[in-house]
Amino acid sequence: MQRRWDGRSAIGTSAPTGEALFDRNGNIGPTVWWGGRVVGGWGQRQDGEIACRLLEEVGAEGSAAVAQAAHNLRERLAEIRFTPRFRTPLERELVA
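Above: the chain's sequence. Below: its structure in token form.
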């Protein structure tokens, strides 16, 4: 059985990363980008916190940039809460 995310390297995902970021129908969820490639995913928890997980190594600079971006997004969203229509394995895990 072919996985839906196969062949999606054009958007910068590798096989291990792809499994976590795509739902069973092939829809991609919220992604973290660094250096022109997808390196992780994120989700918004009930309290508004933006939870991120890096699935590839990005170094100290990349990790700090991702943490700052998550903080900025939470500030920007303020009281707005949302749930993606097509939930991925990683997004579900991060918001649990």
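The chain has a mean pLDDT of 87.
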